[in-house]
Amino acid sequence: MARWLSAGGRCSWRRLVVCSLTCLLLLQLYSFSNRVSVEVEKMKLLSALHPFPLQEHEQVEGLILLPPFGLKYPHKINLNEEFLNASSTARTIFFPIGAVDPRGDAKNDKHYYRPGKTWLDTDGNPIHAHGGGVLFDEKSMTYYWYGEYKNGPTYHAQETGTARVDVIGVSCYSSKNLWAWKYEGIVLAAEEKNETHDLYKMKVLERPKVIHNERTGKYVMFMHIDDATYNKASVGIATSDSPTGPFEYLHSMRPNKFDSRDMTVFRDDNGTAYLIYSSVRNKEIHISPLSQDYTDVLNETARALVGHHREAPAVFKYRNVYYMVTSGCSGWAPNEALVHEAESIFGPWETIGNPCVGANKDFRAATFFAQSTFVIPMPGAGPGSFIFMADRWNPNDLRDSRYVWLPLTVRQRNERYVGLPLWSRVSIFWHKKWRIPVRENGESNYVIDLQA
Ligand code: GAL
């Protein structure tokens, strides 16, 4: 030791420096390999938790954005501006060419959802069920999708400048597998001549939702009814003996005298149903129970998310907890979704954050350039799996608005995966392409009859 030290101060100092540097390097290497293995473990855990193949998640990241004419820095492209710009060269990112076609016999394409692509019905026509909702009819074991039939020209309303399509009516599509949809026609049509009628074509009919009343046997439709300036702010009610209509329009009302714009209905396990709507000029969400026959609201109003300015509510329940996905208020332009949860439907509602996972930052901050409309359980996919239904509005041509249906999963409150970024309790996963889990023989787990 003495020799080593005395072998000349210069030499021992050099050795000391080399030793320290080597130690530092080894330490760095060790912590780096540790971090890598933690990341690998996280990815494994994510894959195990996720009911679908992960490889489709990041496909949006890889998109090459062509800079619009004169723009030198493609990385500075503002996706929100491009989305709203009808002549953007990035248009096909949001409104991809090609269609999901249930008539095709290409096996590899069967049952695949392709969010954002045109979606054809079983006759080969684009599906028009915007701002819609799905009812599973237990009697016929069939799904019915109701929505706004927007197959008309877009123009700007005189008073407000808002892009609009005149009301045509509420459409209905039926399916056994939630993928191949048969057009059942317009089940509630616009009024062509009578200008004072709620359903007059120059007014507004949006976000229709249908629930079934077991006591009366009636199918009850609720919808947002408004005038062209969005000042009537009411809810309309129609009923039918059959899920495929025709629906008889009863009237519109302001629930307990409150203004009501974007809305939905939710039927609880015990048969009690609720109207959930944006109120007080969209500042808050109101929840009111429906009467036993579902054609009126009871004199009871719970006020939630007061001052939060949320709309497009989509409500679902999992293991006795209620969840609500909402959007911000920016008209047809997309914005960030938030999820709220409550142990009682009357609240208190707690905001738990943006559920969007995957794609890229801009897509997550804009709900994948779509707006919530409804959530349904995902058949055959195990507990906590749902389908999130959203509209990718095209304000330049509303008839070309698309659908973004994506897997949504809910974890139990006590399931905490510490350190997993982007993994919130309620998650909506971006997929360029996905399908509901299928059996080994290629059939969907739950399919009763593929010939929808
Ligand atoms: C949105 C609303 C849509 C439609 C649109 C009109 O905020 O969610 O349903 O009303 O505004 O600009």
UniProtKB/TrEMBL annotation:
Keyword hit for rRNA-binding: no
CDD domains named among the record's database cross-references: GH43_CtGH43-like (cd18825)
Pfam families in alphabetical order: Glyco_hydro_43
InterPro entries: Glyco_hydro_43, Glyco_hydro_beta-prop_sf
Alphabetized Gene3D superfamilies for the sequence: Glycosyl hydrolase domain, family 43
Keyword terms of this UniProt record: Glycosidase, Hydrolase
Recorded family membership: Belongs to the glycosyl hydrolase 43 family.
Name the record gives this protein: Uncharacterized protein
